[in-house]
Design a protein that fits this description.
The chain is an alpha/beta fold. Helices cover 28% and strands 26% of the residues. It has a seven-stranded parallel beta sheet with strand order 3-2-1-10-11-12-13, with helices on both faces. It is globular. It starts with 25 loop residues before the first strand and ends with a strand. 37% of the residues are buried.
Amino acid sequence: MPTDEASGPSGRVVSQPAQTHQTPRSVLMVTWAVELGFGGMTAMCLKRAGLFHERGVPSAVVTFDANPGLDEIRTTLTANGKLHSGVPLLNLHEYYAEQAPATATGPELKLRGTGIPWKGATRLDRSVDGSLYCTVYAFPGNDKLSKREYHRRDGSVYLVDAMLPSPHDPDEAVRTLQLLAADGSVQFEFTSAARLYRHWLTELVDRSNADVIIDSKFSAGFLFAWQHPTALKFVNFHSTHVAAGQDTLTGKLSPAHRKIIDNRDAWDGITFLTESQRTAFVQRFGDSSNTVVISNPVDGPETLPSFEDRSPGTVVHVGRFTKGKNIGAVIDIVNAVATANVPVHLDLIGDGDQRPVLEEQVNRLGIGHLVNFHGHVHDVARRLSRARVLLLCSRFEGQSLAILEAQAHGCVPVAYDVDFGPRDVVQDGRNGFLVPFGDQEAAAMALGRLLTDDPLCAGMSARAFESARQYSSEQIFTQWKDALKMARLNKKDREVLAAATVRLAGLRFHADGDTDLEVAVNTGSGQLGGLTLVVTERGTDASQGTTFEPYNESDGIYGFRIPASLRAQLPGSDALDINAVLDVGGLTRTIRLGATPKPASVPYFTAYGNLSFK
Protein backbone atom coordinates (compact mmCIF):
# COMPACT_ATOMS: atom_id res chain seq x y z
CA MET A 1 0.00 0.00 0.00
CA PRO A 2 1.22 3.54 -0.71
CA THR A 3 2.44 5.44 2.30
CA ASP A 4 2.10 9.12 3.19
CA GLU A 5 5.84 9.64 3.39
CA ALA A 6 7.92 11.60 0.94
CA SER A 7 10.56 9.70 -0.93
CA GLY A 8 13.98 10.96 -1.91
CA PRO A 9 15.60 11.04 -5.35
CA SER A 10 16.64 7.40 -5.05
CA GLY A 11 13.00 6.33 -4.63
CA ARG A 12 9.84 7.67 -6.20
CA VAL A 13 10.08 11.29 -7.25
CA VAL A 14 6.48 12.14 -6.32
CA SER A 15 4.41 11.75 -3.17
CA GLN A 16 2.51 8.60 -2.37
CA PRO A 17 -0.97 9.55 -1.15
CA ALA A 18 -2.73 7.13 1.17
CA GLN A 19 -5.63 7.03 -1.28
CA THR A 20 -4.95 7.67 -4.94
CA HIS A 21 -7.25 9.86 -7.03
CA GLN A 22 -8.84 8.30 -10.12
CA THR A 23 -6.45 10.18 -12.42
CA PRO A 24 -3.34 8.13 -13.22
CA ARG A 25 -1.12 11.19 -13.64
CA SER A 26 1.07 12.99 -11.14
CA VAL A 27 1.69 16.75 -11.07
CA LEU A 28 5.04 18.53 -10.61
CA MET A 29 4.96 22.06 -9.20
CA VAL A 30 7.97 23.83 -10.70
CA THR A 31 9.72 26.89 -9.34
CA TRP A 32 13.33 28.08 -9.42
CA ALA A 33 14.18 27.95 -5.73
CA VAL A 34 12.59 27.65 -2.32
CA GLU A 35 14.08 29.86 0.36
CA LEU A 36 13.06 30.69 3.90
CA GLY A 37 11.07 33.92 4.08
CA PHE A 38 9.59 33.46 0.60
CA GLY A 39 6.70 35.42 -0.88
CA GLY A 40 3.21 34.56 -2.04
CA MET A 41 4.24 32.84 -5.28
CA THR A 42 6.36 30.21 -3.53
CA ALA A 43 3.76 29.86 -0.78
CA MET A 44 1.14 28.96 -3.36
CA CYS A 45 3.47 26.56 -5.17
CA LEU A 46 4.04 24.65 -1.93
CA LYS A 47 0.41 24.82 -0.87
CA ARG A 48 -0.82 23.53 -4.25
CA ALA A 49 1.54 20.55 -4.05
CA GLY A 50 0.08 19.64 -0.67
CA LEU A 51 -3.45 20.28 -1.90
CA PHE A 52 -3.03 17.79 -4.76
CA HIS A 53 -1.36 15.22 -2.52
CA GLU A 54 -4.11 15.38 0.11
CA ARG A 55 -6.72 14.73 -2.59
CA GLY A 56 -4.98 11.67 -3.93
CA VAL A 57 -2.86 13.11 -6.75
CA PRO A 58 0.89 12.32 -6.42
CA SER A 59 2.88 15.57 -6.47
CA ALA A 60 6.29 17.11 -5.87
CA VAL A 61 7.92 20.54 -5.78
CA VAL A 62 10.75 20.92 -8.31
CA THR A 63 13.66 23.37 -7.96
CA PHE A 64 16.85 23.95 -9.96
CA ASP A 65 19.10 26.25 -7.88
CA ALA A 66 22.36 25.24 -6.25
CA ASN A 67 21.79 25.61 -2.51
CA PRO A 68 24.01 23.84 0.05
CA GLY A 69 21.46 24.69 2.77
CA LEU A 70 18.51 22.93 1.16
CA ASP A 71 18.35 20.19 3.82
CA GLU A 72 17.77 22.74 6.57
CA ILE A 73 15.24 24.64 4.48
CA ARG A 74 13.26 21.45 3.84
CA THR A 75 13.29 20.56 7.54
CA THR A 76 12.18 24.04 8.61
CA LEU A 77 9.39 24.31 6.03
CA THR A 78 8.07 20.88 6.94
CA ALA A 79 8.17 21.68 10.65
CA ASN A 80 6.20 24.92 10.26
CA GLY A 81 3.66 23.36 7.89
CA LYS A 82 4.64 25.33 4.79
CA LEU A 83 5.72 22.13 3.01
CA HIS A 84 3.49 19.08 3.36
CA SER A 85 5.41 16.28 5.07
CA GLY A 86 4.35 13.83 2.35
CA VAL A 87 5.47 15.98 -0.60
CA PRO A 88 9.07 15.68 -1.89
CA LEU A 89 11.01 18.89 -2.43
CA LEU A 90 13.18 17.91 -5.39
CA ASN A 91 16.28 19.75 -6.49
CA LEU A 92 18.44 19.15 -9.57
CA HIS A 93 21.71 19.23 -7.64
CA GLU A 94 20.49 17.06 -4.81
CA TYR A 95 19.02 14.59 -7.32
CA TYR A 96 22.26 14.05 -9.23
CA ALA A 97 24.31 14.09 -6.03
CA GLU A 98 22.33 11.10 -4.76
CA GLN A 99 22.17 9.02 -7.92
CA ALA A 100 23.99 8.70 -11.21
CA PRO A 101 22.43 10.17 -14.34
CA ALA A 102 20.83 7.81 -16.81
CA THR A 103 23.50 6.09 -18.91
CA ALA A 104 24.14 7.92 -22.17
CA THR A 105 23.81 5.98 -25.42
CA GLY A 106 25.68 8.35 -27.74
CA PRO A 107 29.41 8.63 -28.49
CA GLU A 108 31.85 8.58 -25.60
CA LEU A 109 32.33 12.01 -24.01
CA LYS A 110 35.57 13.34 -22.52
CA LEU A 111 35.87 15.61 -19.51
CA ARG A 112 36.61 19.12 -20.74
CA GLY A 113 38.97 21.70 -19.31
CA THR A 114 41.44 19.20 -17.85
CA GLY A 115 44.44 20.83 -19.51
CA ILE A 116 43.78 24.26 -18.01
CA PRO A 117 45.92 25.19 -14.96
CA TRP A 118 43.03 26.21 -12.70
CA LYS A 119 43.93 28.19 -9.57
CA GLY A 120 42.38 29.71 -6.50
CA ALA A 121 40.04 26.92 -5.53
CA THR A 122 37.40 27.91 -2.97
CA ARG A 123 35.24 25.44 -1.11
CA LEU A 124 31.52 25.51 -0.32
CA ASP A 125 30.16 22.96 2.17
CA ARG A 126 26.70 21.61 2.91
CA SER A 127 25.29 23.24 6.01
CA VAL A 128 23.69 20.09 7.42
CA ASP A 129 26.77 17.85 7.64
CA GLY A 130 29.74 19.91 6.43
CA SER A 131 30.38 17.68 3.43
CA LEU A 132 31.95 19.23 0.34
CA TYR A 133 29.26 20.71 -1.91
CA CYS A 134 31.08 22.74 -4.54
CA THR A 135 34.61 23.71 -5.52
CA VAL A 136 35.06 26.93 -7.50
CA TYR A 137 38.14 27.47 -9.67
CA ALA A 138 39.44 30.56 -11.47
CA PHE A 139 42.02 31.13 -14.18
CA PRO A 140 44.46 33.93 -13.31
CA GLY A 141 44.66 36.61 -15.99
CA ASN A 142 41.39 35.68 -17.70
CA ASP A 143 38.23 36.33 -15.70
CA LYS A 144 36.11 34.91 -18.54
CA LEU A 145 37.23 31.38 -17.64
CA SER A 146 35.94 29.56 -14.56
CA LYS A 147 34.95 26.13 -13.35
CA ARG A 148 32.57 24.80 -10.69
CA GLU A 149 32.68 21.19 -9.58
CA TYR A 150 29.68 19.91 -7.62
CA HIS A 151 30.34 16.99 -5.31
CA ARG A 152 28.44 14.04 -3.93
CA ARG A 153 28.72 13.44 -0.20
CA ASP A 154 31.45 10.87 -0.86
CA GLY A 155 33.51 13.58 -2.58
CA SER A 156 33.05 12.40 -6.17
CA VAL A 157 31.97 14.95 -8.77
CA TYR A 158 28.51 14.73 -10.34
CA LEU A 159 28.48 18.01 -12.32
CA VAL A 160 31.13 20.23 -13.88
CA ASP A 161 29.94 23.68 -14.96
CA ALA A 162 32.73 25.52 -16.79
CA MET A 163 33.40 28.55 -18.95
CA LEU A 164 36.07 27.30 -21.38
CA PRO A 165 37.96 28.83 -24.30
CA SER A 166 35.90 28.81 -27.48
CA PRO A 167 37.32 26.44 -30.14
CA HIS A 168 36.58 29.16 -32.70
CA ASP A 169 37.99 32.13 -30.77
CA PRO A 170 40.38 31.52 -27.84
CA ASP A 171 39.68 35.02 -26.53
CA GLU A 172 36.03 34.12 -26.02
CA ALA A 173 34.52 31.66 -23.56
CA VAL A 174 31.73 29.12 -24.03
CA ARG A 175 29.77 27.37 -21.32
CA THR A 176 29.86 23.60 -20.98
CA LEU A 177 28.03 21.54 -18.37
CA GLN A 178 28.80 17.83 -17.94
CA LEU A 179 26.99 15.24 -15.81
CA LEU A 180 29.30 12.56 -14.41
CA ALA A 181 28.78 9.04 -13.12
CA ALA A 182 30.33 7.97 -9.82
CA ASP A 183 33.39 6.59 -11.65
CA GLY A 184 34.03 10.00 -13.24
CA SER A 185 32.84 9.10 -16.74
CA VAL A 186 30.94 11.82 -18.56
CA GLN A 187 27.36 10.74 -19.31
CA PHE A 188 25.83 13.91 -20.72
CA GLU A 189 27.09 17.25 -22.00
CA PHE A 190 25.13 20.51 -22.40
CA THR A 191 25.98 23.84 -23.99
CA SER A 192 23.69 25.78 -21.66
CA ALA A 193 22.22 25.43 -18.21
CA ALA A 194 18.73 25.61 -19.74
CA ARG A 195 19.42 22.42 -21.70
CA LEU A 196 20.48 20.66 -18.49
CA TYR A 197 17.35 21.85 -16.69
CA ARG A 198 15.10 20.61 -19.49
CA HIS A 199 16.94 17.26 -19.57
CA TRP A 200 16.33 16.77 -15.85
CA LEU A 201 12.65 17.72 -16.06
CA THR A 202 12.19 15.17 -18.84
CA GLU A 203 13.81 12.53 -16.63
CA LEU A 204 11.45 13.39 -13.76
CA VAL A 205 8.37 13.29 -15.99
CA ASP A 206 9.43 9.98 -17.50
CA ARG A 207 9.76 8.49 -14.02
CA SER A 208 6.55 9.92 -12.59
CA ASN A 209 4.09 10.11 -15.53
CA ALA A 210 3.49 13.72 -14.54
CA ASP A 211 2.05 16.96 -15.84
CA VAL A 212 3.90 20.19 -15.05
CA ILE A 213 2.68 23.44 -13.47
CA ILE A 214 5.30 26.24 -13.51
CA ASP A 215 5.16 29.12 -11.04
CA SER A 216 8.54 30.80 -11.48
CA LYS A 217 8.81 33.37 -14.29
CA PHE A 218 12.54 32.66 -14.49
CA SER A 219 11.98 28.93 -14.88
CA ALA A 220 9.26 29.55 -17.48
CA GLY A 221 11.86 31.51 -19.45
CA PHE A 222 13.78 28.32 -20.21
CA LEU A 223 10.91 25.81 -20.02
CA PHE A 224 8.72 27.35 -22.73
CA ALA A 225 10.90 25.37 -25.16
CA TRP A 226 10.51 22.13 -23.18
CA GLN A 227 8.15 19.61 -24.72
CA HIS A 228 7.17 16.12 -23.69
CA PRO A 229 5.03 13.64 -25.67
CA THR A 230 2.66 12.97 -22.76
CA ALA A 231 2.97 15.83 -20.27
CA LEU A 232 0.80 18.93 -20.12
CA LYS A 233 2.63 22.18 -19.42
CA PHE A 234 0.91 25.02 -17.54
CA VAL A 235 2.38 28.37 -16.53
CA ASN A 236 0.97 30.63 -13.83
CA PHE A 237 0.79 34.41 -14.13
CA HIS A 238 1.17 35.70 -10.58
CA SER A 239 1.38 39.35 -11.65
CA THR A 240 0.58 41.64 -14.55
CA HIS A 241 2.05 41.20 -18.06
CA VAL A 242 3.22 44.85 -18.23
CA ALA A 243 5.83 46.77 -16.29
CA ALA A 244 4.62 48.54 -13.17
CA GLY A 245 2.37 51.49 -13.95
CA GLN A 246 2.09 50.72 -17.68
CA ASP A 247 -1.17 50.54 -19.63
CA THR A 248 -2.18 46.89 -20.07
CA LEU A 249 -3.08 47.36 -23.76
CA THR A 250 -0.18 49.47 -24.96
CA GLY A 251 2.42 49.57 -22.17
CA LYS A 252 5.91 48.08 -22.06
CA LEU A 253 5.86 44.37 -21.34
CA SER A 254 7.25 43.05 -18.08
CA PRO A 255 10.76 41.81 -18.92
CA ALA A 256 10.29 38.81 -16.62
CA HIS A 257 7.18 37.74 -18.56
CA ARG A 258 8.48 38.47 -22.05
CA LYS A 259 9.45 34.91 -23.02
CA ILE A 260 6.16 33.54 -21.69
CA ILE A 261 4.21 36.06 -23.76
CA ASP A 262 6.29 35.72 -26.93
CA ASN A 263 5.78 31.94 -26.76
CA ARG A 264 2.21 31.96 -25.48
CA ASP A 265 1.11 29.28 -27.94
CA ALA A 266 3.69 26.85 -26.49
CA TRP A 267 1.69 26.36 -23.28
CA ASP A 268 -1.15 23.91 -22.80
CA GLY A 269 -2.48 26.29 -20.19
CA ILE A 270 -1.81 29.86 -19.05
CA THR A 271 -3.49 30.43 -15.71
CA PHE A 272 -4.42 33.78 -14.23
CA LEU A 273 -5.40 34.45 -10.65
CA THR A 274 -8.25 36.82 -11.53
CA GLU A 275 -10.67 37.29 -14.41
CA SER A 276 -9.65 40.93 -14.87
CA GLN A 277 -6.03 39.84 -15.29
CA ARG A 278 -6.97 37.24 -17.92
CA THR A 279 -9.23 39.70 -19.74
CA ALA A 280 -6.46 42.30 -19.96
CA PHE A 281 -4.10 39.68 -21.40
CA VAL A 282 -6.61 38.43 -23.98
CA GLN A 283 -7.54 41.97 -25.01
CA ARG A 284 -3.93 42.63 -25.92
CA PHE A 285 -2.73 39.31 -27.30
CA GLY A 286 -5.88 37.47 -28.32
CA ASP A 287 -7.11 34.18 -26.94
CA SER A 288 -5.38 30.97 -27.98
CA SER A 289 -7.93 28.87 -26.07
CA ASN A 290 -5.30 28.08 -23.43
CA THR A 291 -6.10 30.77 -20.85
CA VAL A 292 -7.96 29.95 -17.65
CA VAL A 293 -8.67 31.63 -14.31
CA ILE A 294 -7.76 29.67 -11.19
CA SER A 295 -7.43 31.55 -7.92
CA ASN A 296 -5.01 30.84 -5.15
CA PRO A 297 -6.59 28.56 -2.53
CA VAL A 298 -7.29 30.05 0.88
CA ASP A 299 -8.76 28.19 3.83
CA GLY A 300 -10.06 29.87 6.94
CA PRO A 301 -11.78 28.57 10.05
CA GLU A 302 -15.07 26.73 9.72
CA THR A 303 -16.92 29.42 11.67
CA LEU A 304 -16.50 33.18 11.73
CA PRO A 305 -14.22 34.31 14.58
CA SER A 306 -16.11 36.27 17.19
CA PHE A 307 -16.15 39.99 16.54
CA GLU A 308 -15.96 40.61 20.30
CA ASP A 309 -12.57 38.85 20.36
CA ARG A 310 -11.07 41.29 17.87
CA SER A 311 -8.71 43.87 19.34
CA PRO A 312 -10.23 47.37 19.05
CA GLY A 313 -8.17 49.61 16.81
CA THR A 314 -5.94 46.82 15.49
CA VAL A 315 -4.87 47.12 11.82
CA VAL A 316 -2.55 44.65 10.10
CA HIS A 317 -0.47 44.61 6.95
CA VAL A 318 0.80 41.25 5.71
CA GLY A 319 3.37 41.06 2.94
CA ARG A 320 6.97 41.49 1.91
CA PHE A 321 8.58 44.85 2.60
CA THR A 322 9.17 45.88 -1.02
CA LYS A 323 8.64 49.15 -2.87
CA GLY A 324 5.74 47.65 -4.79
CA LYS A 325 3.84 47.02 -1.55
CA ASN A 326 3.99 50.76 -0.79
CA ILE A 327 3.98 50.20 2.96
CA GLY A 328 5.05 53.78 3.58
CA ALA A 329 1.53 54.81 2.56
CA VAL A 330 0.10 52.33 5.10
CA ILE A 331 2.09 54.03 7.84
CA ASP A 332 1.02 57.51 6.68
CA ILE A 333 -2.66 56.49 6.66
CA VAL A 334 -2.47 55.02 10.17
CA ASN A 335 -0.76 58.22 11.34
CA ALA A 336 -3.59 60.28 9.83
CA VAL A 337 -6.19 58.18 11.65
CA ALA A 338 -4.32 58.55 14.93
CA THR A 339 -4.07 62.33 14.39
CA ALA A 340 -7.89 62.36 14.11
CA ASN A 341 -7.98 60.88 17.64
CA VAL A 342 -9.16 57.45 16.53
CA PRO A 343 -7.53 54.67 18.60
CA VAL A 344 -5.40 52.66 16.19
CA HIS A 345 -2.47 50.25 16.25
CA LEU A 346 -0.60 48.84 13.24
CA ASP A 347 0.98 45.39 13.14
CA LEU A 348 3.40 44.95 10.22
CA ILE A 349 3.89 41.26 9.47
CA GLY A 350 6.69 40.35 7.08
CA ASP A 351 10.15 41.57 6.21
CA GLY A 352 12.23 42.81 3.29
CA ASP A 353 14.76 45.32 2.05
CA GLN A 354 12.49 48.29 2.80
CA ARG A 355 12.37 47.64 6.53
CA PRO A 356 15.09 50.17 7.50
CA VAL A 357 13.32 52.85 5.44
CA LEU A 358 9.99 52.07 7.08
CA GLU A 359 11.46 52.02 10.58
CA GLU A 360 13.03 55.42 9.94
CA GLN A 361 9.65 56.74 8.73
CA VAL A 362 7.94 55.53 11.91
CA ASN A 363 10.62 57.18 14.06
CA ARG A 364 10.40 60.41 12.08
CA LEU A 365 6.63 60.55 12.59
CA GLY A 366 7.02 59.76 16.28
CA ILE A 367 4.51 56.90 16.21
CA GLY A 368 6.70 54.05 17.41
CA HIS A 369 4.11 53.32 20.11
CA LEU A 370 1.50 52.74 17.39
CA VAL A 371 3.48 50.47 15.03
CA ASN A 372 5.02 47.06 15.67
CA PHE A 373 7.39 45.31 13.25
CA HIS A 374 6.84 41.59 13.82
CA GLY A 375 8.95 40.13 11.00
CA HIS A 376 8.02 36.68 9.70
CA VAL A 377 5.57 34.91 12.01
CA HIS A 378 3.92 31.50 11.92
CA ASP A 379 0.57 32.55 13.40
CA VAL A 380 -0.75 34.87 10.70
CA ALA A 381 -4.17 33.17 10.87
CA ARG A 382 -4.51 33.92 14.58
CA ARG A 383 -3.54 37.56 14.06
CA LEU A 384 -6.05 37.98 11.23
CA SER A 385 -8.76 36.46 13.41
CA ARG A 386 -8.07 39.09 16.09
CA ALA A 387 -7.54 42.18 13.93
CA ARG A 388 -10.31 44.38 12.61
CA VAL A 389 -8.79 45.64 9.38
CA LEU A 390 -6.19 44.68 6.79
CA LEU A 391 -4.75 47.80 5.13
CA LEU A 392 -3.14 47.27 1.72
CA CYS A 393 -1.66 50.05 -0.44
CA SER A 394 0.13 48.04 -3.15
CA ARG A 395 1.01 49.72 -6.42
CA PHE A 396 -0.04 46.59 -8.31
CA GLU A 397 -1.20 43.06 -7.55
CA GLY A 398 -1.65 39.78 -9.42
CA GLN A 399 -4.04 38.55 -6.80
CA SER A 400 -3.69 39.62 -3.22
CA LEU A 401 -3.27 36.54 -1.11
CA ALA A 402 -3.24 38.84 1.91
CA ILE A 403 -6.77 40.06 1.10
CA LEU A 404 -8.11 36.55 0.56
CA GLU A 405 -6.59 35.31 3.81
CA ALA A 406 -7.93 38.34 5.68
CA GLN A 407 -11.45 37.80 4.36
CA ALA A 408 -11.28 34.08 5.16
CA HIS A 409 -10.71 35.08 8.81
CA GLY A 410 -13.29 37.89 8.85
CA CYS A 411 -10.69 40.68 8.82
CA VAL A 412 -12.07 43.52 6.68
CA PRO A 413 -9.75 44.73 3.88
CA VAL A 414 -9.19 48.36 2.92
CA ALA A 415 -7.18 48.42 -0.30
CA TYR A 416 -6.09 50.67 -3.11
CA ASP A 417 -8.03 49.84 -6.28
CA VAL A 418 -5.14 48.70 -8.49
CA ASP A 419 -4.69 46.07 -11.18
CA PHE A 420 -5.61 43.32 -10.72
CA GLY A 421 -6.48 41.62 -7.50
CA PRO A 422 -8.39 43.86 -5.10
CA ARG A 423 -11.38 44.66 -7.29
CA ASP A 424 -11.88 40.98 -8.12
CA VAL A 425 -12.47 40.02 -4.50
CA VAL A 426 -13.53 43.23 -2.72
CA GLN A 427 -17.05 44.51 -3.27
CA ASP A 428 -16.66 48.11 -2.16
CA GLY A 429 -18.75 48.88 0.91
CA ARG A 430 -19.91 45.27 1.28
CA ASN A 431 -17.00 43.00 2.22
CA GLY A 432 -14.29 45.67 2.29
CA PHE A 433 -13.42 49.11 0.97
CA LEU A 434 -11.68 50.03 -2.30
CA VAL A 435 -10.17 53.50 -2.60
CA PRO A 436 -8.44 55.16 -5.57
CA PHE A 437 -4.71 54.58 -5.73
CA GLY A 438 -2.81 57.20 -3.76
CA ASP A 439 -5.91 58.68 -2.07
CA GLN A 440 -4.68 58.50 1.51
CA GLU A 441 -7.47 60.72 2.75
CA ALA A 442 -10.15 58.34 1.44
CA ALA A 443 -8.29 55.36 2.89
CA ALA A 444 -8.02 57.07 6.28
CA MET A 445 -11.76 57.80 6.23
CA ALA A 446 -12.61 54.18 5.42
CA LEU A 447 -10.23 52.93 8.10
CA GLY A 448 -11.64 55.35 10.65
CA ARG A 449 -15.21 54.19 9.95
CA LEU A 450 -14.33 50.55 10.49
CA LEU A 451 -12.49 51.28 13.73
CA THR A 452 -15.28 53.40 15.23
CA ASP A 453 -18.48 51.82 13.87
CA ASP A 454 -18.83 48.34 15.39
CA PRO A 455 -22.05 47.32 13.58
CA LEU A 456 -20.55 48.39 10.21
CA CYS A 457 -17.31 46.51 10.81
CA ALA A 458 -19.05 43.40 12.17
CA GLY A 459 -21.40 43.21 9.17
CA MET A 460 -18.58 43.62 6.66
CA SER A 461 -16.54 41.04 8.58
CA ALA A 462 -19.33 38.47 8.21
CA ARG A 463 -19.76 39.18 4.50
CA ALA A 464 -15.99 39.02 3.89
CA PHE A 465 -15.89 35.64 5.64
CA GLU A 466 -18.73 34.29 3.52
CA SER A 467 -17.31 35.56 0.22
CA ALA A 468 -13.97 33.81 0.88
CA ARG A 469 -15.59 30.36 0.82
CA GLN A 470 -15.44 30.27 -3.00
CA TYR A 471 -11.62 30.19 -2.73
CA SER A 472 -11.43 27.10 -0.51
CA SER A 473 -8.89 24.40 -1.32
CA GLU A 474 -11.65 22.02 -2.40
CA GLN A 475 -13.04 24.54 -4.89
CA ILE A 476 -9.61 25.38 -6.29
CA PHE A 477 -8.57 21.73 -6.61
CA THR A 478 -11.72 21.05 -8.64
CA GLN A 479 -10.87 23.95 -10.94
CA TRP A 480 -7.34 22.63 -11.47
CA LYS A 481 -8.61 19.11 -12.10
CA ASP A 482 -11.10 20.40 -14.68
CA ALA A 483 -8.50 22.63 -16.37
CA LEU A 484 -6.01 19.79 -16.76
CA LYS A 485 -8.72 17.45 -18.06
CA MET A 486 -9.91 20.01 -20.63
CA ALA A 487 -6.36 20.79 -21.75
CA ARG A 488 -5.72 17.11 -22.41
CA LEU A 489 -8.95 16.77 -24.40
CA ASN A 490 -8.05 19.84 -26.47
CA LYS A 491 -4.34 19.11 -26.86
CA LYS A 492 -4.40 17.83 -30.46
CA ASP A 493 -6.56 20.70 -31.73
CA ARG A 494 -4.45 23.20 -29.80
CA GLU A 495 -1.28 21.82 -31.38
CA VAL A 496 -2.84 22.33 -34.80
CA LEU A 497 -3.73 25.91 -33.87
CA ALA A 498 -0.27 26.57 -32.44
CA ALA A 499 1.41 25.32 -35.63
CA ALA A 500 -0.92 27.21 -37.99
CA THR A 501 0.49 30.08 -40.04
CA VAL A 502 -1.41 33.01 -41.50
CA ARG A 503 -0.03 35.57 -43.94
CA LEU A 504 -1.23 38.29 -46.23
CA ALA A 505 -0.97 36.87 -49.75
CA GLY A 506 -2.36 39.71 -51.84
CA LEU A 507 -4.16 43.06 -52.05
CA ARG A 508 -6.64 44.28 -54.65
CA PHE A 509 -7.98 47.83 -54.78
CA HIS A 510 -11.43 48.62 -56.22
CA ALA A 511 -12.51 51.83 -57.87
CA ASP A 512 -15.14 52.43 -55.18
CA GLY A 513 -12.45 52.40 -52.47
CA ASP A 514 -13.07 48.89 -51.20
CA THR A 515 -10.06 46.60 -50.67
CA ASP A 516 -9.78 42.84 -51.12
CA LEU A 517 -7.40 40.99 -48.84
CA GLU A 518 -6.14 37.56 -49.81
CA VAL A 519 -5.13 35.61 -46.70
CA ALA A 520 -3.13 32.38 -46.90
CA VAL A 521 -3.65 29.85 -44.10
CA ASN A 522 -1.61 26.71 -43.47
CA THR A 523 -2.73 24.34 -40.72
CA GLY A 524 -0.65 21.37 -41.83
CA SER A 525 -2.77 18.25 -41.68
CA GLY A 526 -5.31 19.83 -39.33
CA GLN A 527 -8.81 20.76 -40.35
CA LEU A 528 -9.61 24.47 -40.20
CA GLY A 529 -13.08 24.99 -38.82
CA GLY A 530 -13.35 28.68 -39.55
CA LEU A 531 -11.51 31.93 -40.26
CA THR A 532 -12.53 35.53 -39.66
CA LEU A 533 -10.74 38.87 -39.67
CA VAL A 534 -11.21 41.33 -36.84
CA VAL A 535 -10.20 44.94 -37.47
CA THR A 536 -9.51 47.08 -34.43
CA GLU A 537 -8.12 50.51 -33.76
CA ARG A 538 -4.64 50.21 -32.31
CA GLY A 539 -4.73 50.23 -28.52
CA THR A 540 -8.23 48.74 -28.28
CA ASP A 541 -9.29 45.16 -27.73
CA ALA A 542 -10.96 42.85 -30.23
CA SER A 543 -14.41 43.23 -28.65
CA GLN A 544 -14.46 46.80 -29.98
CA GLY A 545 -13.50 45.79 -33.53
CA THR A 546 -15.36 44.89 -36.71
CA THR A 547 -15.53 41.27 -37.86
CA PHE A 548 -15.37 40.14 -41.50
CA GLU A 549 -16.19 36.73 -42.95
CA PRO A 550 -14.44 35.42 -46.10
CA TYR A 551 -16.41 35.62 -49.35
CA ASN A 552 -14.45 32.81 -51.03
CA GLU A 553 -11.70 30.22 -50.52
CA SER A 554 -9.42 28.40 -52.94
CA ASP A 555 -6.41 26.21 -52.09
CA GLY A 556 -6.00 27.73 -48.64
CA ILE A 557 -6.35 31.33 -49.87
CA TYR A 558 -9.28 33.20 -48.32
CA GLY A 559 -10.72 36.40 -49.79
CA PHE A 560 -12.04 39.23 -47.61
CA ARG A 561 -13.69 42.48 -48.74
CA ILE A 562 -12.84 45.50 -46.56
CA PRO A 563 -15.23 48.40 -47.31
CA ALA A 564 -14.06 51.95 -47.87
CA SER A 565 -16.41 53.03 -45.08
CA LEU A 566 -14.47 51.10 -42.43
CA ARG A 567 -12.62 54.18 -41.26
CA ALA A 568 -15.94 55.87 -40.60
CA GLN A 569 -17.17 52.80 -38.70
CA LEU A 570 -14.09 52.99 -36.47
CA PRO A 571 -13.76 56.76 -36.17
CA GLY A 572 -10.65 56.88 -33.99
CA SER A 573 -7.48 58.62 -35.11
CA ASP A 574 -5.02 55.76 -34.65
CA ALA A 575 -4.04 53.06 -37.13
CA LEU A 576 -6.28 50.05 -37.73
CA ASP A 577 -4.85 46.61 -37.04
CA ILE A 578 -6.06 43.37 -38.63
CA ASN A 579 -6.22 40.12 -36.70
CA ALA A 580 -7.00 36.68 -38.07
CA VAL A 581 -9.09 34.45 -35.80
CA LEU A 582 -8.70 30.73 -36.56
CA ASP A 583 -11.05 28.00 -35.38
CA VAL A 584 -10.04 24.35 -35.01
CA GLY A 585 -12.38 21.96 -33.25
CA GLY A 586 -14.18 24.84 -31.55
CA LEU A 587 -10.92 26.31 -30.22
CA THR A 588 -9.78 29.72 -31.44
CA ARG A 589 -6.46 31.48 -31.82
CA THR A 590 -5.88 35.13 -32.72
CA ILE A 591 -2.91 36.02 -34.95
CA ARG A 592 -1.92 39.50 -36.07
CA LEU A 593 -2.08 39.51 -39.87
CA GLY A 594 1.18 40.27 -41.64
CA ALA A 595 3.28 39.38 -44.66
CA THR A 596 5.70 36.60 -43.74
CA PRO A 597 8.47 36.11 -44.35
CA LYS A 598 9.09 39.84 -44.20
CA PRO A 599 9.37 41.12 -47.79
CA ALA A 600 12.51 42.97 -48.86
CA SER A 601 10.39 45.72 -50.46
CA VAL A 602 7.29 47.16 -48.79
CA PRO A 603 4.66 49.01 -50.87
CA TYR A 604 3.17 52.25 -49.61
CA PHE A 605 1.23 55.21 -50.99
CA THR A 606 2.59 58.73 -51.16
CA ALA A 607 0.63 61.77 -50.04
CA TYR A 608 -0.59 62.07 -53.65
CA GLY A 609 -1.85 58.48 -53.78
CA ASN A 610 1.04 57.19 -55.87
CA LEU A 611 2.47 53.71 -55.35
CA SER A 612 6.04 53.49 -54.06
CA PHE A 613 8.22 50.89 -52.41
CA LYS A 614 10.49 51.10 -49.39
